[in-house]
Amino acid sequence: MIVFGIETSCDETAAAVVVDGKKILSSIVSSQVTVHHPYGGVVPELASREHVEAIVPVVNEALTAAGIDKKGLDAVAVTRGPGLVGALLVGFNFARAFAFTMDIPWIGIDHLEGHINSVFLESDPPPFPFVALLASGGHTSIYHVTSHTGYALMGQTRDDAAGEAFDKVAKMLGLGYPGGIIIDRLAGKGNPQNISFPRPFMDKSTFDFSFSGLKTAVRRYIQDHRNDFRRQIPDIVAGFQEAVVDVLSNKIIRAAKEKECNHIAMVGGVAANKRLREKIMREASRDGLTVHIPSVELCGDNAAMIAAVGYHYLKKGIASDLGDDVYSRIKR
Ligand code: KG4
Ligand code: ZN
Fold first, then answer.
1. Does ligand 1 come within 6 angstroms of the Cβ of 81?
2. Could you say which ligand is closest to the alpha carbon of residue 176?
3. Torsion sign, CA atoms 38, 39, 41, 45
4. Does any ligand 1 atom lie closer than 6 A to the CB of residue 192?
5. What is the dihedral of CA 280, 283, 289, 290, to 10 degrees?
6. Which of 14, 55, 282, 299 satisfies CB 3.0 to 4.6 Å to 271 for a cystine?
7. Pocket perturbation via mutation, ligand 1, pick of 13, 166, 169, 299 by most ligand atoms within 8 A of CB
8. Is 122 a residue whose pLDDT tops 90?
9. Inter-residue contact 66 to 309 (CB < 8 Å)
10. Which residues contact 157 (CB under 8 A, 6 or more apart)?
11. How many angstroms does the Cα of residue 313 sit away from the middle of ligand 2?
12. What's the whole-model pTM score?
């Protein structure tokens, strides 16, 4: 089954062609980073307008790169939520109209379910059941995953998401947007032992997270070192990153042990973080656990992961009807 995926939940316009939920024929991602950069974050109204401009060229590019005519598509899968409503509506309505005119089935997909399934687009996917850490700009959660479409939430952030903390700390230090990748690079030049930041909730039995206190600790450090924090920036970001990495790796490994799973998946934009990838791999292998992390391109938002989930629903005969709508907040 050849599924066409479309994703427009935030600041990336993406389209992809995926065969049987695992083989990517094309995956095009058009980023709006330069548009939002001057504002230090995503401006929802601008995001919607950019999606309107980009959707047709991105769709055409995905079809051309896959070497396929639109008549060769079996179905369409599109992100339904959570995300920015104005942004979601662009891809959602495009997909719905596209499926209607082509007279093929279509399905609205949960963005988080897409991220969880991104590991199945790689050559070495985990066997079920496994535990998944989803760390992105909007969400930080741990799931017990029992099938492509079945998972139970074990814990989630009570305030900021991990990616959001990276972005806010970068903004505080005047490093620009998006902060994750900037901090990732800069932290390599600092020493994580020089400045120690708190590891919120690390020793608590809960699988929930909290990152806002850590963000505040960084802010306080900057205020207390008003005159010389600039030359300490590599150490500040290295110390901050190490605290996030410690909490994330500690909790996901503990979750794997609790559920007696030998396999861990780590997905979402923050899973691209070099230090996090290194640390989780090392700690997990010490406990005999195998970690599955998608390539950096598949960690960030993309439409291939949406097409992958779509395939598993459509295979079961589940599709959306034309009256469906988007949603902005996480679904339970
Ligand atoms: O999954 P994603 O592309 O979009 C959402 O669904 O939110 O995640 C974006 C988030 C941003 O907060 C970004 O700063 C963070 O992922 N991110 C990173 C890295 N690359 C992206 N955080 C840490 N290290 C990175 N290398
Ligand atoms: Zn995402």
1. no
2. 1
3. negative
4. no
5. 40
6. 299
7. 166
8. yes
9. no
10. 139, 140, 141, 208, 209, 210, 211
11. 20
12. 0.95
Nearest CA to ligand 1 atom 13: 180
- d(C-alpha 162, C-alpha 240), whole Å: 11
CA 82 to ligand 2 center in whole angstroms: 9
Mean pLDDT of all residues in 259-280: 98
Closest-CA residue to 108 (of 314, 300, 267, 269): 314
As a whole number of angstroms, the distance between CA 283 and CA 280 comes to 5
Q: Where are the beta strands (DSSP E) in 9-105?
A: 12-19, 23-31, 75-81
- The per-residue pLDDT for range 282-310, each reduced to its tens digit, is 999 999 999 999 999 999 999 999 999 99
Q: What is residue 199's DSSP assignment?
A: -
Residue with tokens 């060229």: 57
Evaluate the omega torsion of the peptide bond into residue 44 and state whether it is cis, within 30 degrees of 0: no
Q: Is 184 in the pocket of ligand 1 (CB under 6 A)?
A: yes
181: its two tokens? 């990748």
Structure tokens, 215: 């963000």
pLDDT digits (tens, 9 = 90+) for 191-218: 999 999 999 888 778 999 999 999 999 9
State which ligand 1 atom lies nearest to the alpha carbon of 299: 1
User: Does the C-beta of 163 come closer than 6 Å to ligand 1?
Assistant: yes
130-135 vs 106-110, strand pairing mode: unpaired
**Ligand 1 centroid from CA 223, angstroms:** 26
Q: Which residues 6+ apart lie within 8 Å of 302 measured at CB?
A: 7, 12, 14, 16, 27, 29, 118
**Cα–Cα distance measured from residue 32 to residue 46, given in angstroms and rounded to the nearest whole number:** 9
Instruction: For ligand 1, say whether the CB of 301 is within 6 Å of any of its atoms.
Output: yes
> What are the φ and ψ backbone dihedral angles of 85, each rounded to 5 degrees?
-60, -45
Give residue 322's pLDDT. Answer: 83
